[in-house]
Amino acid sequence: MGRIIVVGAGVVALGTAMLLADDGHQVVVLERDPEAQPADPTEAWASWERPGLNQARMAHAFLGGFRAIVEAELPRVASALDDAGALRLNFIRDVLPAHATGGWRDGDDRYEWLTGRRVVVESVLAAAAELTANVEIRRGTAVTGLICGSSALAGVPHVTGVRTRDGESIAADLVVDMSGRRSALPAWLADIGARAPVEELEDSGFLYFGRHFRSADGSLPPMMGPPQMSWGTITSLTLPADNATWSVTVVAGSKDPAMRSLREADRWDAVVRSLPLVAHWLDGTPIDDGVQVMARLEDRYRGFVVDGKPPATGVVAVADAWACSNPANGRGASISTDRHRLGEIEAGIRGETYDSPDGAYLLERALEAAMRRDPELVRAYLDIRMVLRAPEEVLTRPGLQDKILDLGSGWRDEPSLGPSRTQLLELVA
To answer: Are the C-beta atoms of residues 129 and 14 closer than 8 Å to each other?
Structure first.
């Protein structure tokens, strides 16, 4: 079996390292942040510093696909997450009313989350990885470049390891870049004379303002709507987490300067309290220092086949190092989805109604309205939003699009329950 370097020690990287090691490979995980996880995962929120991870203390949820893979491939991790107080929540069983779902059906177990705060879940995986044979985790080791050997493909550099900031050379049969949104892989490839990957890049256009809370009695706020809801020119995101904690986030457009005062706790609080299906999520004790802000996020895709050949062999990019997008959608949303939401926000700022002839956009908005009226559409919506099935697979089921358009065609006429743009400006001012 091979020797594999995984660059980065986030949740997906640690899971990948364990899967590779379970297959018999020798895996070295290189993480630039120096601090190891605390012995008790519940201490991670208060004490674990992850400066290389800008979303460490922002809202986060691990969807049904994550839970299914962990239970099937890494059951020891699933058990450890349960022991650490991770939340198990099934939308069909625990959230939605029976009249909307038609009751429990075979296969509905796929809608179960196994989730928690980002750093708590990562600390559990880090501890499990450290106990996994053939996995070595080296923290405080920043990769600065690639090492090349004899080419395996004519005219294409072949990577045989990495160089670190301390000047060390570490050999490997394969380098897996999982260093996240800030991946420097294109620069590393340029340094070895490789062609640049194909890249699509643009600012996602969103600002995130979030807080976390904990209840005194171990309860969680009831969900009165989907986790993500649009309210004119802002979006709310409410996510239950581990150990009776949860997060509330307000997402605004980065070109909406009036919303930047949401970084102030009193104004953020006033806006959330104005959202009738969300206000009760503030009935807990805040567990962070003020409003956490996340900005300057990119929507990016990198294609690592150029004119039929890879830029280099011996190295691959996985997860956010390969492609990343607006995390508010929770499903690796397409860049076009972000563009439509930004279009809605910018039209709302001007006092106009956003209009688009894009059939995919119209179908998505119709599904959001129709899913409340039909059990089949509830499951179609969850399959897409929880990354369980590709939209193309779901929406091509016979008769489904006709049903969506029949039940959801009036989505534009549904009343808005939240504040008007004028009221919102008064709240943030």
So the answer is: yes
Distance, in Å, from the CA atom of 202 to the CA atom of 205, rounded to the nearest integer, reads 8
177 half-sphere exposure, CB direction, 13 A CA radius: 29
Identify the bridge partners of residue 206 per DSSP, sorted by sequence position. Answer: 253
CB-based contacts of 193, cutoff 8 Å, min separation 6: 157
Contact 414, 369 (CB under 8 A): yes
In the chain, domain spans: 3-138, 142-202+298-324, 204-295, 335-413
Fold designation for 3-138: FAD/NAD(P)-binding domain (3.50.50)
Residue 233 has pLDDT above 50, yes or no: yes
Tokens of 8: 């980065």
Query: Average pLDDT of 43-69?
Result: 90
Residue 334, pLDDT > 80, answer no
* 429, burial (CB in 10 Å: exposed 0-12, middle 13-18, buried 19+): exposed
Average of per-residue pLDDT across 223-233:
92
C-alpha span between 122 and 331 (Å, rounded): 19
pTM higher than the cut 0.90? yes
Task: Kindly give, in sequence order, each residue whose CB lies less than 8 Å from that of residue 210, ignoring residues fewer than 6 positions away.
Answer: 58, 59, 237, 247, 248, 249, 250, 291, 292, 294
**Which residues sit opposite 236 in a β-bridge?**
229, 250
Indicate the pLDDT class of residue 416, thresholds 50, 70 and 90.
confident
240 contacts: CB under 8 Å, gap ≥ 6: 87, 89, 115, 220, 221, 223, 246
User: Given the DSSP bridges, would you call strands 87-90 and 26-31 parallel, antiparallel or unpaired?
Assistant: unpaired
Instruction: For the beta carbon of residue 412, count every other beta carbon within 10 angstroms.
Output: 12
- Tell me if residue 163 falls in helix, strand or coil: strand
The answer to whether 387 touches 428, Cβ cutoff 8 Å, is no
pLDDT tens track for 342-370: 899 999 999 999 999 999 899 999 999 99
Residues paired with residue 158 on neighbouring β-strands, in sequence order = 149, 313
Q: What's the number of CA atoms in the CB half-sphere (13 Å) around residue 157?
A: 19
Paired sense of beta strands 198-203 and 298-303, if any: antiparallel
One-character DSSP codes across 290-355: S-EEE---EEEEEE--BTTB-S-BSEEE-GGGTEE--GGGSS---HHHHHHHHHHHHHHHHT----
Report the pLDDT value the prediction gives residue 219, as an integer from 0 to 100.
Answer: 95
> What is the CATH number assigned to the segment(s) 204-295?
3.30.9.100
Question: What is the distance between the alpha carbons of residues 294 and 229, in angstroms, rounded to a whole number?
Answer: 19
Residue 105 confidence (pLDDT) above 70: yes
